[in-house]
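Figure S4 source data
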Amino acid sequence: MLLSWIASAYLKFVCLTSRTVLRNVGDVPSLQLLREGRPGIFTFWQDRLLLVLQTISCGPIALMLNTHDRKDWLGSLCRAFGPEVFEISLSNGGRHSLVCLIDRLKSGRPVALSADGNTGPREESKAGPFILARETGAPLFPVDAKARWTITLKRGDERLLLPLPFNRIEVTFGAPVPLSRHQELSDLKEVKKLLKQSLDRLTQG
């Protein structure tokens, strides 16, 4: 669709005219794992999606995306950068997409998804990243991004930070969140708290 083509062309122009700085926090080379296409779960706050899209697309990644419907421009925009995209909409739910991501992880590929989705509350972790890590044993990496100049796109409760051209964009990969395959769903509240703390530390760093 025309809107997604314009959006992808604009975002690629931003990437070409901007300086992107990559940082890795901790001893695990998470960015290298991503580039090599090795299994890992990369998660970020939903409003940073457009800031991290080019970087997380550097490897053969599968992206789970929260959209409003299957014709949503955001899904088409993300596909233009290369990821295999599994969309969750209000009409189809997220179980099938989670199963697909679990399959990709078990086959040795990295995946990405937002920690909080687009239905709110913002910057409150959902269960998706925990379920993926518990079912596969893959490491869960928090990712944050910030740019010197952005504007905020608003649609309902959803917020997306749109970087401007000739910018400085910084993407930070955090240390893996300490999880175990033996953790139960009853631990979900504590795990969501750990993930939020990890993302918040990157945001404030």
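Figure S5 source data
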Amino acid sequence: MRAIRYLLLLYVMCFFTLLCMSFACTLGVIEFDILSRIFYDAPAPSHHRHVDWNADGDMVAVVGDMGFFVFSEQLEKEFHSKLISCLSVSWNPHENIIAVSDGDRVAFFDGTTFEEVHDVPAANVQIVTWSPSGKYVAIGLGGKIQIRSADGKQTEKTVTLSGFSIYSLTWSPNSLMIAASADGENIVRIYNAIAMQEEYSYSKSS
């Protein structure tokens, strides 16, 4: 009788273990499905090029071939610009301002009303990114990196990477350094953001 009770208890334990595992797997599928809908099924631009969260983490901006979109956390479309073929987007970490590049200019949008506040002509601009302090914006224009004021109107510093187009830019957390990579150049360059002088570089043969 004791052996039978033991076997029954073991059976019940195995049953609940399998049930919990099945429930956990189901949750995992649900979470993956949500991520899939965010990045693939949402009515956002085809050929997504760049995304960025706002400071509160409840909205995401997306740019691509069909322009500039903003979605809420619940995937509800809040805004769709008339800009075509946008390349890069960056949400100011302190001010509710969004910078968007579309190849010929950098447009600045109010992050609450999504109205365009102003724009700055910038030929061949590929990427735009705010400093963590929110006081400066870095712009990659062809083979140049420019550090501009928060409104983008005043150029603080410029450095040229001769013969290469800027592919990616990122600031250090303290806003003092910038890492940059260029298309066709197998080098990552680190710049002092204040003097805009190259501090060092990293290269690895392919």
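The chain has one helix and 16 strands. Residues 15-45 have pLDDT under 50 and may be disordered.
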